[in-house]
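Long-time lurker, first post. I've been practising inverse folding by hand and with some scripts of my own, and I keep getting stuck on stretches where the structure tokens seem ambiguous. Below is the full token string for one chain I'm working on. Before anyone asks, I'm not after the true native sequence, just a reasonable design that respects the backbone. If someone could post their per-position residues I'd love to compare against what I wrote down in my notebook.
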């Protein structure tokens, strides 16, 4: 497994020792053993942020790249002053020189009025680039009030990594949970059941029934799809939809020590109270000691939520560093930004991290790792007022892998790559330059992966009787390249459409 050389850049903002309005908040920044002191003056009570956050809270509005840039620059300029800015320049120098694969910006924002600002919009004025545009600068939130946060859980786990996807029946009919479940299944199936397995709980169920499923399945990842609000999520109780408070969800996860990541694809579950710390869903779950929680701080459109899920799991499961949640969220965020830089969909997901290096599980690269024979990529736990708990489906036989079809895809990718060219980004507006930059980087990544695939093919597919495990690896690598190809083509269409208007 590649080394996860993301170096932390820690920012701690503390409550002001003084009272009254307009008092600055002390800030301490640490990077590679060096520290710097500064202040933060911005908080949610300023009229500008009252208007800005209300604008971001409406998913149907598109603030525009200039407006988002303005918000991000205000936060950046407020934080990165004097010695703090010098330390950040040093960190970026390490990234540019290759001493670090990435810089993980860890925000410990203790004053609630500072924590509820949209830090995910942070914009690096010096480089004219939003943090969200690069997967190399993931932004995560941490809580260093250790008296309030439980000890983090052990990260080692047995294979396969199990994902429990939970989708309570939507009484409004607005959420297409089936689509998101199928997307998770597709990604896992591409990697192979050797390392990952998905089970699901769908239907009408209450918090206790969810708890029983977690106790039976012992998942590593809990993924919840549904409706939410800052203080809770929508489940069912006695056949009726019912809001379940964050404290109840926290209770059932307190002893669910197998869970290393909770993904809440529900609106507002990631919202932070501007007055009381640890009162909303995301921070409350972090208090249980769960290594990582991903939740939405604003309402999101269904398409944005589904896209985020796809990119997140592609990188978390099949990326260069499996299990690195900060890298996975950074990758997903950069893709959302590239696709829609005028919208704050890229900033809606918030990552709370309680794991020192961002790696929430470790997957051994052992080809002889035990495989659960006959386990389907997805089994269902049908939930309802009278349903059994944690019912498994019957074993399903593995389907044969068609090598000729894979080699045909291989040839199509080769032809497509031969036709691709870098798109120059000179004399274009900032938002389009970022999209082109991401597209060019992604194209370079595909070219590198394809060269590695050809090397793998020449070494491993020389004999007539190829082992299934080798074919699975070949299929998995092809699938990842095809997925990236689709994203690049989508960006190509957007870029050419924008260029035609200029």
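-- Answer (accepted) --
I ran through it position by position. Result:
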């Amino acid at each position: 497994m590649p080394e996860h050389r993301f170096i932390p850049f820690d920012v701690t903002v503390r409550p002001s020792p003084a009272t009254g309005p307009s008092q600055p908040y002390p800030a301490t920044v640490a990077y590679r053993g060096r520290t710097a002191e500064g202040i933060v003056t911005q908080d949610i009570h300023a009229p500008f942020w009252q208007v800005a956050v209300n604008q971001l809270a409406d998913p149907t509005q598109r603030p525009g790249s200039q407006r988002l840039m303005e918000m991000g620059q205000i936060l950046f300029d407020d934080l990165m002053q004097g010695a703090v800015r010098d330390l950040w320049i040093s960190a970026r120098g390490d990234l540019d020189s290759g001493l670090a694969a990435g810089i993980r910006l860890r925000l410990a924002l203790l004053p609630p009025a500072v924590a509820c600002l949209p830090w995910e919009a942070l914009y690096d004025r010096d480089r004219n680039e939003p943090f969200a545009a690069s997967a190399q600068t993931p932004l995560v939130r941490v809580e260093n009030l250790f008296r309030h946060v439980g000890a983090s859980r052990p990260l080692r786990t047995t294979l396969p990594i199990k994902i429990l996807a939970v989708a309570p029946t939507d009484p409004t009919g607005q959420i297409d949970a089936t689509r998101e479940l199928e997307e998770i299944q597709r990604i896992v199936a591409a990697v192979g059941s050797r390392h990952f397995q998905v089970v699901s709980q769908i239907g009408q169920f209450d918090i206790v029934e969810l708890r029983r499923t977690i106790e039976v399945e012992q998942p590593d990842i809990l993924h919840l799809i549904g409706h939410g609000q800052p203080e809770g999520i929508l489940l069912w109780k006695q056949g009726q939809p019912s809001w379940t408070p964050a404290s109840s969800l926290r209770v059932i996860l307190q002893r669910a020590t197998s869970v290393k990541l909770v993904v809440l694809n529900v609106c507002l579950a990631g919202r932070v109270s501007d007055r009381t710390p640890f009162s909303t869903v995301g921070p409350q779950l972090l208090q249980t000691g769960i290594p990582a929680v991903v939740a939405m701080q604003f309402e999101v459109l269904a398409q944005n939520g589904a896209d985020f899920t796809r990119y997140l799991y592609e990188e978390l499961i099949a990326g260069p560093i499996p299990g690195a949640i900060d890298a996975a969220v950074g990758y997903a965020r950069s893709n959302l930004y590239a696709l829609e830089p005028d919208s704050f969909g890229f900033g809606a997901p918030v990552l709370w991290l309680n794991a020192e290096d961002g790696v929430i599980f470790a997957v051994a690269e052992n080809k002889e790792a035990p495989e659960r024979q006959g386990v389907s990529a997805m089994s269902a736990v049908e939930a309802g007022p009278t349903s059994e708990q944690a019912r498994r489906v019957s074993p399903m036989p593995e389907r044969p892998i068609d090598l000729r079809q894979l080699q045909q895809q291989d040839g199509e990718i080769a032809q497509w790559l031969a036709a691709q060219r870098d798109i120059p980004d000179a004399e274009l507006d900032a938002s389009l330059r970022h999209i082109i930059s991401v597209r060019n980087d992604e194209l370079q990544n595909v070219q590198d992966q394809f060269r590695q695939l050809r090397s793998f093919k020449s070494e491993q597919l020389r004999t007539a009787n190829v082992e299934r495990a080798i074919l699975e690896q070949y299929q998995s690598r092809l699938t990842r390249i095809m997925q990236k190809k689709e994203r690049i083509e989508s960006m190509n269409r957007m870029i050419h459409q924008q260029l035609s208007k200029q």
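A couple of notes from the structure itself: The longest strand covers residues 6-13. The radius of gyration is 23 Å. Happy to go over any region you disagree with.
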